[in-house]
Design brief:
Helix content is about 50%, strand content about 15%. The chain contains 20 helices and 22 strands. The strands form six sheets. Strands 10-9-8-11-12-13-18-22-21 form a nine-stranded mixed β-sheet, sandwiched between helices. A five-stranded mixed β-sheet has the order 2-1-5-6-7. α2 crosses α3 and α3 packs antiparallel against α4. It starts with a helix and ends in a 14-residue tail after the last helix.
Length: about 625
């Protein structure tokens, strides 16, 4: 196939060169006809015959030197047009010099030289640009007649928007019919970009979209701020529009298939800050050649952590989880992607202290990431004993294993629900944090806790729930209209977990997450992103706070905030107060009560260990 393609390209180059030679001949002849009003005197006819071989000998090699025989009819643009004009200007200059040095007795009139240049350049330009223009015209006509066409506005009339429009015109693999641009720069209003008008500011979208029958918005603004994006979506919430966005800044766009890079707007684009990106070289330096164990590997955070670690060449990666089905699929996926990395899958219940010890002695992990936990707040309110067994006793088992087998790092995945907890889940995660702090004070292993806010897209989180409810046609359920949450993406959570946990920054680390977002606003925007109208096409229902839930979550207590410091652009280290001296004895008492099924005793012990915590519903204690 390569030889066939090369032969086709060679034939096209030969044909273009022959066409150029014919164009030169015709242009010179037409120049003489125009100069002498269609009647060429005999002496000038002789001059034409002498000049034609000289002109061909000059122009053809120059055109070849400029590479004009290697022409892309589909991707030709302003740069190629300038190259064509430049080649012919050089040819005309060389002709004038050649006639002077060859001392042709009667040189051509200057008017003929000028006319020939314009005619030659025009003929070559028509031959090279007309296929693309014809193709674009036909595509535009077909798209206008198509029932599937999507009348589209490009948001952003800058370089990225112009490049996107140009690429959309080249392709017949989409249904976007671009009718214009919107941009906040008033100097661009009323101007034409690629033949499409800049219709006004972005704030005019609520009026423009219905009047122009727009069905799709394409965002071509590099690094559009989350708050600004939310503002735009809110203004268009009453319209049934589709939304797509370019995923990278204009500086990284290639000149091929830019429209194919468009992706649907997602909840991640609505974060109140720029996404946090991590240094891959630094990540590799922390992971390469290490023996690593990840608990909760079959979960959202644990699984993504394993994918990140496997991509940076650890010596050994052990995946541990009690969910053997999802563990099997993850193991198969990673072995397929990284066949040269030693990857082991181990079914493990973290509540089994002996099983934890066996795995530690067998693999001797240098780094332990503990992501296994019971995390669903309402379920744990109904089963506090199980929350203690898993979140508290399981964490103690893993910490003991890491300490006794000489691990270098232990990293606990925690949650903002552990701050001033109002739920059993939050209280048990706070006790787990205290256990890690206790080991950090007395073990040569570097123990650390990484505290997250809500992770977009993780299993059981609000985003997948909203997507499922929207797909069913609603209603979308929100607990309270004033409920706010800190949000982060799974890549951010995992990057923080690895870099902060292995970087030995401190005992408790938090990502700077910006301002919390109202869950109601998130629900409305996700309905809008699905092309539906909130409260009209998709209803929103308020269900009330469930037991253990809070209106607002916090990332730090007031005391922690006072003693925290920013160690990197997006990392904050908290100087956590020391845990109680008798912590482990009290934890042992708590786990004994949990194993005995003494719910009253469990809740009382949690209250004693976590000051400020109170059971959300008192009657749970007597069920």
């Amino acid at each position: 196939m390569q030889s066939a393609g090369a032969a086709s390209g060679w034939h096209r180059s030969v044909m273009l060169t022959l066409f150029d030679a014919v164009s030169i001949c015709l242009s010179l002849y037409a120049a003489y006809l125009l100069r002498f009003e269609s009647h060429i005197p005999a002496e000038y006819w002789d001059q034409f015959q002498r000049m034609l071989p000289i002109l061909l000998a000059i122009r053809v090699p120059i055109l070849l030197a400029f590479g004009l025989q290697r022409w892309s009819f589909r991707f030709s643009g302003l740069h190629e047009a300038a190259r064509l004009v430049g080649a012919n200007l050089v040819g005309t200059g060389c002709l004038v010099v050649a006639v002077f040095f060859l001392r042709v007795p009667v040189g051509p009139p200057r008017s003929i030289v000028a006319i020939e240049f314009f005619l030659t350049t025009s003929l070559m330009g028509v031959a090279r640009f007309s296929p693309r223009l014809t193709h674009a015209w036909l595509l535009s006509g077909m798209r206008s007649l198509s029932r599937d066409r999507l009348r589209t506005l490009i948001v952003g009339a800058g370089s990225a928007g112009e490049l996107l429009l140009r690429d959309l015109r080249r392709s017949d693999e989409h249904s976007y019919e671009v009718i214009g641009f919107v941009d906040d720069d008033p100097h661009k209003w009323g101007r034409s970009i690629g033949g499409k008008p800049v219709l006004g500011p972005i704030s005019s979208l609520p009026e423009l979209a219905p009047s122009r029958r727009v069905r799709q918005l394409l965002f071509a603004i590099p690094r559009l701020e989350g708050p600004r994006l939310r503002e735009i979506l809110a203004s268009c919430s009453a319209l049934s529009l589709g939304y797509k966005v370019l995923p990278v800044s204009f500086a990284y766009l290639s000149d091929n298939a830019i429209w194919a890079m468009l992706q649907g707007l997602s909840a991640q684009h609505l974060l109140p800050r720029h996404p946090v990106h991590f240094d891959e070289a630094e990540m590799a330096s922390l992971v390469a050649g290490r023996r690593i164990l990840v608990t909760g590997a079959a979960g959202s955070i644990g699984g993504e952590t394993c994918r990140l670690l496997a991509a940076h060449d650890p010596e050994l990666l052990v995946l541990a989880d009690i969910d053997e089905n999802n563990l099997y699929f993850l193991h198969r996926e990673l072995r397929g992607k990284h066949p040269r990395t030693a990857i082991e899958a181990q079914v493990m219940d973290i509540r089994d202290r002996e099983r934890a010890r066996q795995l530690g002695e067998r693999y001797r992990p240098q780094d332990v990431f503990h992501a296994a936990a019971h995390k669903h707040v309402p379920l744990m309110e109904d089963a506090p004993e199980e929350a203690v067994k898993n979140n508290v006793a399981g964490c103690l088992n893993l910490c003991t294993m890491a300490h006794e087998t000489g691990a270098e790092h232990f990293v606990l995945v925690s949650t903002d629900k552990a701050v001033n907890p109002s739920s059993v889940m939050g209280a048990t995660k706070r006790v787990a944090e205290l256990i890690v702090l206790d080991f950090a004070r007395r073990s040569p292993t570097a123990f650390a806790t990484v505290r997250f806010g809500n992770v977009l897209g993780s299993a059981g989180s609000v985003v997948p729930l909203f997507k499922e409810q929207i797909a069913r046609g609603g209603p979308v359920t929100v607990t309270d209209p004033e409920c706010r949450r800190f949000l982060m993406s799974i890549p951010e959570a995992v990057g923080l977990l690895v870099l902060a946990g292995l970087g030995r920054y401190g005992d408790l680390l938090i990502l700077e997450m910006g301002e919390p977002i109202r869950v109601l606003d998130l629900a409305r925007m996700m309905i809008g992103l699905a092309g539906q109208v909130p409260d009209k096409e998709i209803p929103i229902v308020f269900t009330g706070l469930r037991p253990g839930e809070k209106i607002d979550e916090e990332l730090m207590t007031e005391e922690e905030a006072r003693d925290s410091r920013l160690v990197r652009e997006h990392f904050r280290v908290v100087a956590a107060p020391p845990p109680p001296a008798d912590l482990l004895a009290r934890v042992e008492r708590l786990t004994v009560l949990a194993r005995a099924g003494d719910r009253v005793g469990v809740l009382a012990a949690l209250q004693s260990l976590v000051p400020g915590y109170a059971p959300a519903v008192s009657e749970l204690a007597v069920r």
